[in-house]
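Collaborator request log, item 7. Partner lab (contact: R.S.) asked for a structural prediction of PQ-loop repeat-containing protein 1 to inform their binding assays.
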Amino acid sequence: MWLLDVIFEYAAPFFLITSPITSYADQIHSIHRSKSSAGFSLDIPLIMLIASIFKFFYWFGSYYATSLFVQAVNMIFVQLVLLKIALNNRPTPGAKEGIEHVPFTAQRQDNSFMGFSRPYNFWRWRSEKPYWTFLSYFTGILFVIHVFLPFISQTETYINILGVAGLTVEAFLPVPQVLANQRSRSCKGFRVSVLGSWLLGDAMKMSYLFYTQDVIPPAFKFCAIFQCMCDMYLGLQYLMYGAGTSKAQYPSEKEIHLG
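Returned to partner:
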């Protein structure tokens, strides 16, 4: 039993803190080495940055476990680096590249995603500046509310909104892939190594959240369960469909817009 206590109290927090680096360092290195981000979805840094920024400000109202806060800070740094590398190495429009590294493959030529159009071509901009402008405004608004509007930032309702928003956004990371696989009856384009890292992360996260003595808000546990269920269903899809040829009609590589 003492071994489990050591794992939950020391190993799991260490894994959570370092998970942003261990999960995305290979992707950053791969893009930098190949000088191309073809096949990489810019939605990944978008989702993780929004979720982590929410969780960063949430900590100042909830003071949840320090390891989870440090994880959020590390994730922001890693995703900013990943976004910068990906933007600097984007292929020219229409370049024919492989899509084997695309976790979200159901993108359409009309800048829609899973059937939903993106207003103002959101997060599909050709120029690099709008990405940083959006992130600056988003972070700046939360900072202004936190520092200059304490009658809002110190309310329980606002604090809960930050927590639920951040955790919900992060929990929905696997959902587009689940829907894409279900629609195509295939896991083509989804690497089993990505699935393995997600499932390992779920196991460590669930162990820590439910067995640690640290203060863990219920929202963390609920969203962790939801994300774990989605990742497990991804594994089931891989067993059912494999990585064979898709049965649905998807756009070719030339039609996929990466920003």
